[in-house]
Amino acid sequence: MVPPLDIFALTNGRSRWLGCADTVADVLAFAKDHGEGLYFVFSLHTGDKEFYKIDNEGAVEKAYI
C-alpha cells in the first residue's frame, strides 16, 4: 500500500517531491531532517495541502499560503 501523504519542499516558487509518509508527525520529522525551509504535505485521500515552515533551529510552524 502506498503511504497516504506526499512531502514537497518549496524553493523559489517551485515544488520538489521529497518522499512520502504515513502520518503528519512522520512528515514533520522528515522535513526537519532536511532543514530550514517551506514544506507542504499533500494527502492522496482528501486532496488537501498543508504548509509548514521549519526555521533554522528546527521549530515547526504552520504556514498559510
Amino- and carboxy-terminal Cα gap: 31 Å
| N-to-C SSE string, H for helix and E for strand | EEHEEE
Report the biggest beta sheet as strand number plus sense, adding barrel if it closes.
Answer: 5 strands, antiparallel
Radius of gyration: 11 Å
The secondary structure category is alpha+beta
- Low-confidence residue ranges: none
Overall body shape: globular
Q: Tally the helices: what do you get?
A: 1
Strand content: over 45%
Strand order in the largest sheet? 2-1-3-4-5
Describe this protein's structure:
- The chain is of the alpha+beta class and 65 residues long.
- It has one domain.
- Helices cover 17% and strands 49% of the residues.
- The protein is built from 1 helix and 5 strands.
- It has one helix spanning 24-34; strands at 5-11, 14-21, 37-43, 49-54, 60-63.
- A 5-stranded antiparallel sheet has the order 2-1-3-4-5, with helices on one face.
- A hairpin with a 5-residue loop joins strand 3 (37-43) and strand 4 (49-54).
- The longest helix is centred in the middle third of the chain and has 11 residues, at 24-34.
- It is globular.
- The model has no long low-confidence stretch (mean pLDDT 92).
